[in-house]
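Q: My labmate handed me this sequence with no annotations at all. I'd like to see what the chain might look like in three dimensions before we decide whether it's worth expressing. Could you predict it?
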Amino acid sequence: MRNYIIRRLLLLILVLWGVTLVTFILMHVVPGDPAKVLLGKLSGNEVLVTKLRHQLGLDKPLIVQYFEFVKGILRGNLGNSYKFKASVMSLILERMPATIKLTFGALIIGLLVGLSSGIISAVRRYSVWDTFSMLFAFIGVSMPVFWLAMLLQLLFAVKLGWFHVSGFEGLRDLILPSVTLGLIYSASIARMTRSSILEVIRMDYVRTARAKGASERIVFSRHVFRNALIPIVTMIGMQFGGLLTGAALTETVFQIPGVGKLLINSTLDLDYPMIQGGVMFVAIVFVLVNLFVDVLYAYLDPTIRYD
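A: Here is what I predict for the chain of 307 residues:
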């Protein structure tokens, strides 16, 4: 296991290098000039545009700009934001707490709703609850997160007045965004939980456990649910990256000052250093979560070994 983790961490370096390369190429393929965006109404003055491009280093060859960026990363420096005139790392760390709170709030809600509805749906297959649960999962998978966010804003903030429409003044303002993101997240978990449990429940060792006189609670907890967890954990790990993407849209709709909203605004402003730093942050989190999921496999299934 130790050697496997070391290999995955070394692979992380290659993944991050690929992320920086692809992000850098895509940013320079997209039409637009950061200097003109920053100058706004003065963008028609070519002298000012040329001067600002020189100050930002945008007049250098692309290969030089890329290697300067990589050199900065190796030194622990992601550069300075064009718009905020501050360190990219400090801006990410400043906004990270709000994103972490939203992400984990949505994760808790998604797991509670998704696992419980999936388990009940599998145990009571073809019942009214099963039909309702799978209908909910189908709608959740198909529904855009920003549309659900606006519906919940209209109902619970505008009509009922229970929450603020937008803004972030405390944990209370994270309830509605967390529910929004968590419900979307729970739909995939519910479907995977149901199908995984139904597959395991037909296995011979489950029938053997019942034949030996084990109670249904013991059969389900020790033989069914634990063996059904591996594909469920895989789904949770894979969906975590989508959870971060959904957090960006949710933060924008609810005006939460998180990393996702910062990244979207930076994309609109063509703030190259901020975009690269934000994408690297998401990539690092995604790869580390998947590494944690792989390590968790060995605990859930002792027959799995990483040689």
